[in-house]
Amino acid sequence: MTKVMGAAMRRIQAGNALTAFGIGFTVPFLYIYVAQVRGLGSMAATSAFVAFALGALIALPFTGRVIDQRGPVPVVMGAAVAASAGALSLGLSTGVVPILLSALALGAGQAVMQPALATMIVWCSTPSTRTRAFALQFFMQNLGLGIGGLIGGQIVDVGHPGSFTLLFGIEAVMFLVLAGVIATVRMPHAPSIKDAVPKDPGAGGAWKRMLRHRAMVKLLVLGFVIFFACYGQFESGLAAFGTEAAGISPSTLGFALAANTGAIVVAQFVVLKLVEKRRRSRVIALVGLIWTGAWVIAGFSGLGHGSALMAAGAFITTYALFGIGEAMLSPTLAPLVADLAPEGSVGQYNSAFALVKQMALALGPLGVPLGAGVPMLYIGVFIAVSLGIAWLALRIGKQLTAVQDNPSLAKAAVPAEPVAVEASKRASEQVSERVAA
């Protein structure tokens, strides 16, 4: 990694962490703010979450092409300004319509930032450093969210709406700080497995080309299943299962969420050393097996055997195991998306993956009726889904080149040697054949 790439990466990661810190101030308290502080009720609060997700779903299909045409820097800056306006407006709004419009803008801005920042990380990294870069991004995000939520919890007061306005104001400022930091980033031309930096922004048919790319289509399906089965259940189906079937108290649920974040923060770089030189498809498959165990333990907590303390311990363990799986995925999924993207489409591929994530999160609450009403069936379904993750990951591994599946192999190549040059040519030909397929 060059000095220019290193300097750019440090600024990107710093801006990303500060933004996560700002988001952490408001995310845990949005429902309380709309339903109780503004006195609009649970239906309005639910509608705010829907508007937040809808903003993301509306914006993301168009984001990739703009990134590939204009570059990620102006996209991040524009999205940050839109999110800042949405956050500030949300903190000042008192009626349903202004709150929904504010949530729409905030959701769209935050969603657009994700693939744009991911593209910046791709441009500022090499195949051999990209795994660690995305792991650091995930670590900083979770650390920022955790610290922001902890501090925000000490500031908020349901009896004083101004305290919530302060939180949303801090979030708005953090988005502007991100825009300011990104404006100073000097973007390098980074080497990639397939030269992921766009050179032909005018290339058309990006969506059609991506949908003909079988490995990417399978990865999108896998991503949807992963986000629906894990992230989509944290605060919906699994929470309903815990409180209804396992008799978990709200405070225990809070400890479980803290255990999830703690597992990520503690395990991230330990896990990174174990996975960065191994095949990505097998790492993802292992995550499926770990999550299978997590769902089995969750099921034990709802059986009613043993003490309430044992049930609580099992439930907290479930969330911690999910965190370990997340720590394994962070240096695996996002870099794989980037390495699959053909020339001129890295923004498109990142946006498509972000869109799939948002769709999975939006559908996550569908697990609530099952988790609360038929708890053991709920557990059985997601045990099967987790095993399906392992199976899909191994299937995807057959579609990847050796370097795509294990980027550490690229370090063995020595460009000055004729043999290495010839091997590089053969690898490029294989990539072209797979994309064409």
TrEMBL record:
- What keywords tag this UniProt record? Cell membrane, Membrane, Transmembrane, Transmembrane helix, Transport
Q: Which residues cross the membrane?
A: 12-34, 40-60, 72-93, 99-123, 135-156, 162-185, 215-234, 254-271, 283-303, 376-394
Grouped into one coarse class, the protein's main location is membrane
In the bilayer, the protein is annotated as:
Multi-pass membrane protein
Q: Where is the Major facilitator superfamily (MFS) profile domain?
A: 8-398
**UniProt-annotated location(s):** Cell membrane
Q: Which Gene3D superfamilies match?
A: MFS general substrate transporter like domains
Q: By its UniProt entry, which InterPro entries does this protein fall under?
A: MFS (IPR011701), MFS_dom (IPR020846), MFS_trans_sf (IPR036259), MFS_Transporters (IPR050171)
Q: Does the keyword Transmembrane helix apply?
A: yes
Q: What protein am I looking at?
A: MFS transporter
Q: Native species of this protein?
A: Streptomyces cirratus
The lineage, from the top, is: Bacteria, Bacillati, Actinomycetota, Actinomycetes, Kitasatosporales
